[in-house]
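Bench notes, afternoon.
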Amino acid sequence: MDVPPPEWLTIASGIQARPMVEGNGSSIILYRMEPGRLFERHTHPFPELGVVLAGRGLVLVADEKRSVREGDAFYLPSGIPHGFEVDAGGPALLMNVIVPPLPDLSGPPPSEVLALAKKFGHELPVPPKHRSRAKLGSTGT
């Protein structure tokens, strides 16, 4: 099956985005940025992981600036203002990955999982602080 690559979309002067993969709240987006460009600080309700594929610049997170170059990776927490400033010496190519946060796995397994395990003769371990809530038929809350 031949699927054409996604188009580059201009999102600001000298900054283009190319969504590569999207689904179930996850995405991979490439950003192509001209020398000296500033991707303004912004926020959103999900964390991001970034990798500098080419070039160099500054990752801006809250009031901090971190110098990055090709091969460096960075983490952008949800709800915290962040942006990127490209070094004036050349363009930059970034890859950002957005993945929904994993559910809290420290609590008891859901009652459906406990019931299925019991049906097949298995007993699942339950963290001690949750043992009183992990009875079959409980909601786990």
